[in-house]
Write a structure and sequence with these properties.
By secondary structure, this protein is of the alpha/beta class. It has one domain: Zincin-like (2-Layer Sandwich), CATH 3.30.2010. Helices cover 53% and strands 11% of the residues. It has 6 helices and 4 strands, in the order H-E-E-H-E-H-E-H-H-H. It has a 4-stranded mixed sheet. The protein starts with a helix and ends with a helix. About 9% of the residues have low confidence.
């Protein structure tokens, strides 16, 4: 009787081990994959840039005149904002301009951050600000002002190169509400 029990026990053990291995593999696959990591792009963007004294305005198809306007507004707003925060821009700022909000939603820039909301929150990464045109020049000017304020504030608090940001971010842990309040 014992002779017949051992192979059955061995088969059950192997079956249970195999099932638990499958469960662990399935769990690992689910936790490592995030839905919506890439956005669908309906058209191909051909990027160019317009350079002013303190800013590079990146634009795509049919956006050259708008990029000139954005660079001009940014240059007009910068001196007053630098005077207000008593800090000047150390490097040229980059403005990424989308012709429409729909173009902005197709972008893979900044995946995983909360800058793409219907309210038009400007998100910055290393002297970059992302703005879009919604047929309202006053709103575009507001986005540019918010972006410049955020760049100046982050450079003042954290520094403007990657090494400064990494070292200062570890030491200076500001709450998000304070960080957002500085721009307002």
């Amino acid at each position: 009787m014992q002779y017949h029990k051992k192979p059955i026990d061995k088969k059950i053990f192997l079956l249970l081990a195999f099932c638990s291995l499958l469960v662990n593999m399935a769990n690992a696959q689910v936790s490592s994959v995030q839905f919506g990591k890439n956005r669908v792009q309906f058209k191909k963007f051909k990027w160019q840039y317009y350079q002013s004294r303190n800013f590079n305005a990146y634009f795509n198809q049919d956006g050259q005149e708008l990029a000139k306007y954005v660079a001009q507004v940014a240059e007009e707003e910068l001196p007053a904002m630098e005077k207000f925060v008593e800090f000047s821009l150390q490097r040229r700022g980059n403005i990424i301009l989308y012709n429409t909000f729909n173009d902005l939603q197709q972008s893979n820039i900044g995946i995983g951050t909360d800058w793409q909301t219907s309210g038009g929150v400007t998100k910055l990464v290393n002297n970059k600000m992302i703005v879009y045109y919604n047929s309202n020049h006053a709103d575009l000017r507001k986005q540019i002002r918010e972006g410049i304020a955020k760049v100046l504030t982050e450079n003042l608090l954290l520094g403007d190169d990657l090494g400064d940001v990494a070292s200062n971010a570890a030491l200076l842990d500001l709450p998000q509400c304070l960080d957002d309040g500085d721009v307002a």
